[in-house]
Amino acid sequence: MEENSNMTAERSLEIITKQIEQSRRVVSKTTGQSLYISGICIMCTAVLVAVINMITMSQGMIGIGHVLWFALPVVIWLLSRKYIKDREHTPVSLVSSMIAKTWITFGYFGIGFFVIALIWGILAPRLLTPSEYVASQIRVAPVIVLMMGMAITITGHILKQRWLVTFGIVAGLFCFAWEHFHIGMGIVMAFISNGSSYSLTAAAVNASLPCITIFIFALVGLLLPGMMLKNQSL
Q1: Of 2, 7, 171, 182, most Cβ neighbours within 10 A?
Q2: Burial grade of 229 (CB within 10 A; 0-12, 13-18, 19 or more)
């Protein structure tokens, strides 16, 4: 009788262990798919924004392509609902919840800051003198890439991936300096304008430089961790 009881306890422990492992795999797969879809969407949007900026620059619409960023959260949400079939049946996980909240928070701050900068860009020329307006211009790209680097770093800590933490810190700070101190613009002027005046081509390329940075951040910070988690769940 005691032997049968021990066998039942061992069998129960085995079943519980298998269920926990199965739940972990489902959570990893769902989290990986979410990161993967978000990375793909951000990368595609970055390419579209850069192309639109290049095309519309000659018509005097500087940076009009950046409006597409407003549609990005909706696209990610729709695709996630379509392709992540077992999201509703996925157990609540602290890891997946923290990753999701990290990137949702980044989205709130990123879009909110973009809206503030857009409104200020419309109002400032009407409220300030030209010299005051130039001094008060808000540069969006440096802040966005810094926040994205922070989000990638936090994701790396949650996933316990040192390489992701290192990339987020180094790339975030480097790209902030790159954008804030106009290093990219200096290179563009040197190779495109050849020391002459600020050409239209240089302006178009400069408007697209942040898209290249965001593309790389999405590739390394979202797409690759997503693929890693998906492979772990197989």
Answers
A1: 171
A2: buried
